[in-house]
Amino acid sequence: MSARLHGEVAHIRPMAEADVPAVMAIEQRMYPFPWTERIFRDCLRVGYACRVAEQGGQLAGYAVMSSGAGEAHILNLCVDGEHQGRGLGRQLMCHLLDEAAGRAVDAVFLEVRPSNRAALHLYETLGFNRVGTRKDYYPAENGREDAAILALTLAFPLQ
Ligand SMILES: CC(C)(COP(=O)(O)OP(=O)(O)OC[C@H]1O[C@@H](n2cnc3c(N)ncnc32)[C@H](O)[C@@H]1OP(=O)(O)O)[C@@H](O)C(=O)NCCC(=O)NCCS
Questions:
Q1: Looking at the domain assignment, is residue 149 inside a domain?
Q2: Which bin fits 6, alpha (ψ -120 to 50), beta or left (φ > 0)?
Q3: How many domains does the chain have?
Q4: Residue 159 lies inside a defined structural domain of this protein
Q5: What are 116-151's pLDDT values in tens digits?
Q6: Residues of the chain with pLDDT under 70
Q7: Is 158 among the domain residues?
């Protein structure tokens, strides 16, 4: 899938094992408490939707989604610092939501730190609503931070 973003072409494709080192480099730059390489390899092994976005031939972002029993869970969404603010996060999310719809998913869930203004703005403008809180879900500099649980219901045309 290709999409024109601010005059640039973003290409979204399945993540391969060979992408994991580049993905890990971004993960460690962008998160204070990053996933391990093992988690990404496990997500690939069990067949989760692991996607990468390339801009100008560079791996610029990635996203991971699990799905089953009519539900999908966005497990990770990340855009490298120098590529942020160009619509790439939105493009990755739209790609995953298209895939979820194609898998007859009724509802998409994700967790986000309430302090993550950029991510919250993105999810809310895509139609996600806050449906709950997971207490002390995330590690934080001073202990733990709650997670906001967001959900989006996907509408299907009647047959
Ligand atoms: C969240 C993230 C994926 C967004 O990616 P991005 O490519 O920068 O996002 P986009 O360029 O598509 O912008 C999406 C929206 O967020 C808004 N936004 C971007 N940075 C923002 C900020 N610091 N505060 C508020 N809104 C912000 C943009 O204005 C845009 O909204 P608009 O289309 O209404 O103008 C990116 O910031 C990131 O990877 N952060 C680190 C990892 C992370 O926190 N992932 C989410 C975990 S739940």
A1: yes
A2: left
A3: 1
A4: no
A5: 999 999 999 999 999 999 999 999 988 999 999 999
A6: 1-9, 156-159
A7: no
Give the containing element (helix H, strand E) for 22.
helix 20-30
Q: By alpha-carbon position, which residue is closest to atom 32 of ligand 1?
A: 122
Known catalytic residue at 111: yes
137 is catalytic: no
Q: What are phi and psi of 39, to 5 degrees?
A: -65, -45
Domain enclosing residue 137, as ranges: 2-153
Length of the chain equals 159
Q: What is the CATH number of the domain that holds 96?
A: 3.40.630.30
- Lateral strand order in the sheet of 143-153: 2-5, 8-14, 49-55, 58-68, 71-79, 107-112, 143-153, 129-140
- pTM (2 decimals)? 0.94
| Residue whose CA lies nearest to ligand 1 atom number 36 | 79
